[in-house]
Amino acid sequence: MAYPILNPLCKDPALASSCALAVMAKAPRPGKVKTRLSPPLTLEQSAALNIAFLKDTTRNIADVAATSTAVGLVCYTPIGDESLFEGILPESFALIPQRGDTFGERLHAASDDILACGFGAVCLIDSDSPTVPASVFHQAIDLLDRPGDRIVLGGSNDGGYYLIGLKKPHREPFTGIHWSTSTVYAETVSASRDAKIELAELPVWYDVDDGDTLHMLCNELFGGMPLPFASVPGYRAPHSREFLHRLFGVSK
User: Fold this and answer.
1) Domain span at residue 75?
2) Closest by alpha carbon to 188, among 206, 207, 171?
3) What is the CATH number of the domain that holds 101?
4) Is the N or C terminus of the chain more exposed, i.e. has fewer CB atoms within 10 Å?
């Protein structure tokens, strides 16, 4: 199916009470996504795992949206590859293109563009964390629904973050950050506080972007091993579970 594509120049006042849960995603082409997982996976397997992650994350978000004020989106790149998301996302989802050159520019532009569409708040969510608990998304929505301006931040155990939520356009959280390093979360916290923007922190989770974190995901999904930094159980991630079961032959 073809998903609607939002235009930031066309503001919809009906969205003012809604929070956009927007997954930042590349079109799932082999060699363009999850390349740090090759090895141990091939580029084709890495792309297939990325699709499983997208299916799980967006299905989780769609379920959250069904019982809240949230709306599910995918903020995608590159423009022209919209058809590669067909059959992956829930029918309720819409697309909005990314713009900008650096990662910080893309995050900043995504938050600005989604808010310009009329949403009352936005959460930008990574596509590498398929087991983020639904309760965390509900918590982010609730925090952003409260009076007053604030930033909501969900930190990853590697020093980055898996979610950033805003109610108003802000450049500060995306400027001067050393992206793809272990200081991203701390620098974002510092930038938000320096700008005197209230900050609310979510439970710590993790990204799956290399062999070690793939092993962590397998332990979480199949080994029943609790994450040492987690305070709540993760989402079941059935698509990732099924893919890894077929790939490695581990028991479901």
Assistant:
1) 13-248
2) 171
3) 3.90.550.10
4) N
Residue 47 lies in a domain: yes
DSSP string, 71-88: EEEEEEESTT-GGGGTTT
Q: 189: part of which helix (H) or strand (E)?
A: helix 184-194
Q: Mean pLDDT throughout 196-210?
A: 96
Is residue 3, in this structure, part of any structural domain at all?
Answer: no
Select from 50, 55, 54, 26 the least CA-distant residue to 38: 50
Give residue-wise pLDDT tens across range 73-119: 999 999 999 999 999 999 999 999 999 999 999 999 999 999 999 99
| Tokens (6 digits) for 127 | 């596509």
- What is the reported pLDDT for 251? 62
| Helix 43-66 with 134-145: angle, nearest 10 deg | 50
Q: Which residues are paired to 26 by β-bridges? A: 77
**Mean of pLDDT values over 153-163:** 97
Residue 1 domain flag = no
